[in-house]
């Protein structure tokens, strides 16, 4: 039983890591939380649906398509909406409102194209039984994707010039600009890559549950909880935070059902963690 | 539906949204606090009203109870985030809105869970026709709008309001002058939440039935559109914004019955509202009515014994 919960926790953590990587990186770079990330996840789920509504659709194709599709949507939204707003030195609250507004535009465009009824991917995932553990093929791909994304991002952030530039801008934008870093190019790249990962998270979430336009909004709360818990803009903090929330949720749900509460309170766990962090360590775990 | 009743019903909703927009205006327009979970306090007010009125309490006591509980929750939710940057407050309040809805949805015992809860009307003994009962509610709600408007107008034009505006502009400078900024912010959050709670109570009383899905994050978003369109920092602007947006929203609902569109008007409406708010923020961030200079009497004039009425 405990082993199964551990596996489930890892799966949850992988999902949150993929969904929130872009959120935390762009939050760190552009200095505002992009609430439209919920809809980036949803958009990924629906782009994946193009492929996976056929029983013989390949999930890797769907993941790639979602990654590039959502990445492009994100880049476009940055260029059309957020870059002009930042250039007009719009205040933080208005930037957040705009991102919520963008979320509504995306969600209802998705609702218009694919409809609001509940749909699902047509794949059957192979189930492996290892002792007491039940593991599906989907979980394995999800975990491997999260792991690869983590390793690639780690190498990118520490080894490449661009990755170092991202950290430099997040740390001190003015100083970074003085050293000749092309800030706009790097911000655009981060918006693309981060949202692409959120798109793949959407495919995984949809494959595990169902495809609805509210899909992303339903995990917005844990996404923000891990972002704040890990420290805004801190990718390594995010990994730890995703694991913590993954374990907290899966063990918490067992505990909650044990004392007779609805498992709808799963989201409340993320909220409690969020409040505790704000009270005791507002800068996140790392600092 | 009887067209007259439809119009009156629209005006009732306008009134409720006016109260909500006024409360957000106090928080954001005057004090610079971004409350992204307005709907939570609205919902708490509505549910506390719906639950307590079942015990046969007088209507105004239930309304006040809803406001008090909303205010207490407002303080509890905002306190951890108020000493941090605005984005933390936004994340906390948006999360709180979701949590309140989840609780009322999951707990059948509190107020019927997803099935909702019926609210006895305070006018049921009068045996009114549908039209008359809407009119009576309309009067009640606009009386509250007027009272809240006058109170807020006085509050924001008082020395207290001057402190709030200066907190919005530069809270560190205000703190340097020896004002306890957090204390003011929590107070404002409590007043704003209490007003939203009153709106919730009136909403429950009017509709005579509430359920969790009436309190989606959409309500908060609408209130923000109304405030930004009307003009932040201007109480009259809040009223105008609420009126315009509610009428546009209702109008498009009627238009849907007469105009055959190849797309779902519900989706189109939200896409357009989303685009509208981005355009407003980009090109017209001050809204229809601009913020007026504060109406307090300068100290110098009081000292010289000039009449206050000037």
Helices and strands in order, then pairings?
The complex is a heterodimer of chains A (287) and B (310).
Chain A (H helix, E strand, L loop, with lengths): L1 H29 L6 H16 L6 H29 L4 H23 L12 E4 L2 E4 H23 L1 H11 L1 H6 L4 H26 L11 H11 L4 H24 L7 H15 L7
Antiparallel strand pairs in A: 1-2
Helix pairs in contact in A: 1-5, 1-6, 1-8, 1-9, 1-10, 2-3, 2-4, 2-8, 3-4, 3-8, 5-6, 5-8, 6-8, 9-10, 9-11, 10-11
Chain B lengths: L2 H28 L7 H16 L5 H24 L3 H21 L1 H4 L5 E2 L11 H27 L2 H11 L1 H6 L4 H27 L1 E2 L6 H14 L4 H24 L6 H19 L15 H5 L7
Antiparallel strand pairs in B: 1-2
What can you tell me about this protein's structure?
The complex is a heterodimer of chains A (about 290) and B (about 300). Chain A is mostly helical and about 290 residues long. Chain A has one domain. Helices cover about 75% and strands about 5% of the residues of chain A. Chain A is built from eleven helices and two strands, in the order H-H-H-H-E-E-H-H-H-H-H-H-H. Chain A has helices at about 1-30, 35-50, 60-85, 90-115, 135-160, 160-170, 175-180, 185-210, 220-230, 235-260, 265-280, and strands at about 125-130, 135. A two-stranded antiparallel ribbon of chain A has the order 1-2. In chain A, a hairpin with a 2-residue loop joins strand 1 (about 125-130) and strand 2. In chain A, helix 1 (about 1-30) runs parallel beside helix 5 (about 135-160) and helix 6 packs across helix 8 (about 185-210). The model of chain A has no long low-confidence stretch (mean pLDDT about 90). Chain B is an all-alpha fold and about 300 residues long. Chain B has a two-stranded antiparallel sheet. Chain B has a domain at about 5-215. The model of chain B has no long low-confidence stretch (mean pLDDT about 90). The relative contact order of chain B is 0.17. The radius of gyration of chain B is 20 Å and the shape is globular. The termini of chain B are far apart. Chain B is built from 13 helices and two strands. Chain B has helices spanning about 5-30, 40-55, 60-80, 85-105, 110, 130-155, 160-170, 170-175, 180-205, 215-230, 235-260, 265-285, 300-305, and strands spanning about 115-120, 210. Classes of the chains: A mainly alpha (about 290), B mainly alpha (about 300). The interface between A and B is large, with 45 and 43 residues.
């Amino acid at each position: 039983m405990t082993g199964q919960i551990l596996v489930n926790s890892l799966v949850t953590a992988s999902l949150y890591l993929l969904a929130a990587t872009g959120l935390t990186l762009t939050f760190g770079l552009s200095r505002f939380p992009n609430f439209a990330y919920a809809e980036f996840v949803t958009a990924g789920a629906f782009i994946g649906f193009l492929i996976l509504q056929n029983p013989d659709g390949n999930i890797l194709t769907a993941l790639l398509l979602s990654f590039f599709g959502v990445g492009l949507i994100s880049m476009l939204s940055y260029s059309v909406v957020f870059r002009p707003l930042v250039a007009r030195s719009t205040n933080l609250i208005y930037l957040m409102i705009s991102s919520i507004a963008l979320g509504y535009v995306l969600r209802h465009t998705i609702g218009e194209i694919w409809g609001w009824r509940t749909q699902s991917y047509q794949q059957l995932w192979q189930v492996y039984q290892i002792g007491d553990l039940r593991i599906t093929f989907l979980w394995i791909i999800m975990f491997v994707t999260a792991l690869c994304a983590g390793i690639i991002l780690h190498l990118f952030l520490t080894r490449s010039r661009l990755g170092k530039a991202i950290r430099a801008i997040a740390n001190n934008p003015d100083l970074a600009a003085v050293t000749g870093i092309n800030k706009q190019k790097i911000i655009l790249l981060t918006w693309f890559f981060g949202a692409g990962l959120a798109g793949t998270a959407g495919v995984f979430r949809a494959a595990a549950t169902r495809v609805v336009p509210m899909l992303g909004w339903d995990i917005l709360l844990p996404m923000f909880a891990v972002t704040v818990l890990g420290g805004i803009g801190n990718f390594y903090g995010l990994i730890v935070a995703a694991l913590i929330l993954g374990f907290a949720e899966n063990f918490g749900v067992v505990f909650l059902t044990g004392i007779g509460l609805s498992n709808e309170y799963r989201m409340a766990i993320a909220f409690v963690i969020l409040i505790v962090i704000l009270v005791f360590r507002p800068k996140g775990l790392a600092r | 539906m009887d067209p007259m009743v439809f119009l009156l019903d629209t005006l009732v909703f306008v009134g409720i949204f006016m109260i909500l927009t006024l409360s957000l205006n106090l928080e954001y327009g005057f004090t610079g606090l971004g409350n992204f979970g307005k709907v939570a306090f609205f919902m708490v007010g509505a549910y506390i009203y719906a639950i307590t009125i079942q015990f046969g309490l007088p209507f105004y006591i239930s309304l006040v109870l809803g406001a008090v509980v909303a205010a207490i929750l407002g303080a509890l939710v905002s306190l951890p985030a108020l000493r941090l940057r605005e984005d933390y407050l936004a994340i906390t309040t948006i999360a709180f809105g979701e949590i309140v809805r989840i609780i009322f949805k999951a707990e059948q015992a509190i107020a019927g869970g997803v099935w909702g809860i019926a609210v006895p009307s305070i006018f049921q003994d009068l045996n009114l026709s549908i039209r008359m009962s809407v009119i009576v509610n309309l009067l009640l709600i606009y009386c509250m709008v007027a009272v809240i408007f006058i109170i807020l107008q006085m509050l924001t034009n008082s020395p207290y309001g001057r402190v709030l505006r200066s907190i919005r502009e530069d809270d560190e400078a205000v703190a340097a002058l020896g004002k306890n900024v957090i204390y003011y912010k929590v107070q404002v959050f409590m007043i704003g939440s209490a007003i939203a709670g009153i709106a919730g109570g009136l909403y429950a009383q009017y509709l005579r039935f509430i359920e969790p899905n009436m309190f989606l994050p959409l309500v908060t978003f609408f209130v923000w559109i109304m405030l930004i369109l009307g003009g932040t920092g201007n109480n009259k602007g809040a009223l105008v914004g609420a009126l315009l947006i509610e009428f546009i929203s209702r109008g498009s609902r009627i238009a849907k019955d007469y105009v055959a569109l190849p797309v779902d008007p519900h989706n189109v409406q939200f896409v357009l509202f989303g685009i509208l708010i981005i355009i407003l923020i980009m090109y017209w961030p001050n809204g229809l009515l601009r913020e007026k200079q504060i109406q307090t009497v300068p100290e110098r004039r009081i000292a010289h014994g000039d009449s206050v009425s000037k």
